[in-house]
Amino acid sequence: MEHVYASIDLGSDSIKLVVCDLYQNHLNLLAATSTPSRGIKKGLIIEPELAKKSIRLAFKQVEDMLGVRIKKVIANIPNHMAEYKIIKGESDILGDLITSHDMMNSYKAGIKANLMPNEEFITVVPIDFKINGKTVMKDPKGFPGKKLMGRAMMVTTPKKNVYSVASIIESLGIEIVDISVGSIGDINCFRNSDLDKSISAVINVGSDITTVSLYNKSIPVSTKIIGAGGSDIDRDLAYMYKIDVEEARKLKENFALAHKRNADVHDIYETVNMDNVKIKINQKAASEVVMSRINEILTLAKNELEDLTNKPIQYIIITGGMSNMLDFEYCVHDTLPSVASKAKVKLIGVRNNKYSTAIGNIIYFLNTLKLKGMDYSMLSEDDMDELSSPRENTNDDTMLGKVFGYFFGE
Fold first, then answer.
1. Spatial separation of the C-alpha atoms in residues 178 and 188, rounded to whole Å
2. Can you give the pTM of this predicted structure?
3. Which residue has the higher pLDDT, 318 or 347?
């Protein structure tokens, strides 16, 4: 396990923590957990102490699986108010041939010129490079030249989004080596050569929110947040059958289907309502309630995509925890264009769409390392034997300084 990477995604319903190793260019799962989250609402941390306890539990569960303490992690930052800006920058090539350092240098001026005071730098997604004002290519490493101009998509979020997550994780003695957002994680989890040539979208249906992200050749260009998700289904079922929300959630997760197509009117769920009266709920009736809300959420997502672009979208991928529900694909067929499909996370051991963001952020992190020509692991050989107490948290560096410095190898 020479190259190990950990990634955490803080959701309103659950904390997802994934640890993988890279062996012969193949990503393998070492451990994964999904623990109930508290103190997080609509993707934002509202009660830090409760959120801290949930995050601590997730790390404990993974560390128990691995038998080693996780000290470094990639952290997912809320997509709320994320900004995407195309930046350009130029630098002199230091040697005879272009290096990764030259490529990173070409972005620096563009980043500093376009970063607003209230924004926090997340990352830059490379678009292309121009050598000596003429030759354009995706990866110019190893080519001769005197000047290099780089274009990239810079991703930023409000400072509070970053610091709310970073302060909690680092207070647990865990170093954040990189930050990302869901729009980057999701597309990298499912990225392929077809997406790299197309206009595409990802709809992530979570517990409290649904995130709609638009991409041009796998580069994120815009994100919209819809304030609806799986928890709305819980409330619908609770209202319909006069049961508490926790019982409604069990009904959704253990009995109802996402679509009424295959639901059985003779399949019965027995429970007690708020009036302490025993009731019987048939699967078809419950599934109709679920289907109605899912179709509404997907329709809202479709409307957001129509507002984001008037160009034809070649691929629409639906992911997130809610998309795991049985027969969800029929709702997709009912409401979205034929280019839409339910996603399938393919990493063995976590074939569950709720992990797409966490897994995708690891993949993007690895691609960034490759671009920079770096070899890096979050778990050293010494770490495997070391079970020390958490380090003290220090706040000498700003998060921008840490991430900016990491990205550019400073």
1. 15
2. 0.89
3. 318
For the chain, how are helix, strand and coil distributed in percent, rounded to 5? 40, 30, 30
Give the dihedral of Cα atoms 197, 203, 206, 211; nearest 10 deg. Answer: 90
Q: What are the residue boundaries of the structural domains of the chain, listed by start?
A: 231-291
Structure tokens at 190: 């499912």
Contact yes or no for 362/18 (Cβ under 8 A): yes
What integer pLDDT is reported at residue 378 of this predicted model? 82
- Cβ neighbours of 20 (radius 10 Å): 26
The string of pLDDT tens digits covering residues 252-310 is 999 999 999 999 999 999 999 999 999 999 999 999 999 999 999 999 999 999 999 99
For residue 346, the tally of other CB atoms under 10 A from its CB is 10
Q: Which CATH number fits domain 231-291: 3.40.910.10, 3.30.420.40, 3.40.50.150, 3.30.450.40?
A: 3.30.420.40
Taking only the tens place, the pLDDT of each residue in 173-219 is 999 999 999 999 999 999 999 999 999 999 999 999 999 999 999 99
Q: Dmax of the chain from CA atoms?
A: 81
**Residue of 95, 87, 79, 76 lying closest to 17 (CA atoms):** 76
What residues contact residue 396 under an 8 Å CB cut-off, 6+ apart?
none
